[in-house]
Amino acid sequence: MNLRLKYGIPSNSVITIAGTVGVGKSTMTNALANSLGFRTSFEKVDTNPYLDKFYADFNRWSFHLQIYFLAERFKEQKRIFEYGGGFIQDRSIYEDTGIFAKMHNEKGTMSQVDYETYTSLFEAMVMTPYFPHPDLLIYLEGSLDDILSRIKERGRPMEQQTPIEYWEEMHRRYENWINSFNACPVLRININDYDIMEDESSIEPVVERISHFLRQTQLLKK
Ligand SMILES: Nc1ncnc2c1ncn2[C@@H]1O[C@H](COP(=O)(O)OP(=O)(O)O)[C@@H](O)[C@H]1O
Ligand SMILES: Nc1ncnc2c1ncn2[C@H]1C[C@H](O)[C@@H](COP(=O)(O)O)O1
User: Fold this and answer.
1) Beta carbons within 8 Å of 164's beta carbon, 6+ residues apart
2) Pick the catalytic residue: 46, 57, 90, 96?
3) Does the Cβ of 32 fall within 6 Å of ligand 1?
4) Hey, which residues does 138 pair with through a beta bridge?
5) Ligand with the closest atom to the CA of 26
6) Helix axes 25-36, 203-221, angle to 10 degrees
7) Could you confirm whether 90 is annotated as catalytic?
8) Which protein residue has the closest C-alpha to ligand 2 atom 13?
9) Mean pLDDT by 10 residues, the chain (222 residues)
10) Predicted ipTM?
11) How many CB atoms neighbour CB 65 within 10 A?
12) 83 close to 98: Cβ distance less than 8 angstroms
């Protein structure tokens, strides 16, 4: 059944799924898109020409990788706009700067000059009145232990070889980042509150929460 009609979710909605690596964004993107009849916008990991190199040498490749992600996400944003919405997006553009670029700069694996070049480009492209922000950002949160088991279970070699401290640092930063994020409305969902791998129908309460939340934010806009 199309849950979009049942819960009155506007067909032009754009919902972005945020959260740390391995928390379950892609899985949630697929499940929501299927139940709402929406298109998906995914990060392409397998065809990313920098990702493996980046994990092998952060210093050398962090700037290249950020520029690549920014270009890819911006192109996706354009595609979503051209379709007139109706999308679930796997990871928001805001996490690139708010989490990744910032973390690499502060940890010394992205130089100050590269970071400033990147952030000025990001701000010129994204933080303008012309850039359409999503109607809703769903933030998936879970314990570090659960997330580390998911990264392990998924088994991407580059991530397995990365020290646990990297994922710990990212997990901590995500919590701080979401507490001050205000570019669009945020709905926080704990990964223990649904289990779409075992029980497909557990997506319905999530859709219900989205519907309720969107209605509230629309009312506030009026
Ligand atoms: N609700 C869930 N319950 C159990 N395992 C899950 C759930 N969602 C995702 N996973 C598993 O966790 C791993 C990471 O999920 P994924 O959706 O790829 O995360 P992300 O896109 O956030 O990196 C995958 O192996 C996936 O099968
Ligand atoms: N902006 C980014 N900088 C560095 N690494 C990034 C960025 N965006 C995504 N990544 C990495 C993290 C993961 O290894 C893959 C895919 O992310 P996932 O959270 O599993 O969808 O890309």
Assistant:
1) 148
2) 90
3) no
4) 17, 187
5) 1
6) 80
7) yes
8) 21
9) 92 97 97 97 94 98 97 93 96 96 98 98 88 94 98 96 97 98 96 91 94 83 59
10) 0.97
11) 22
12) no
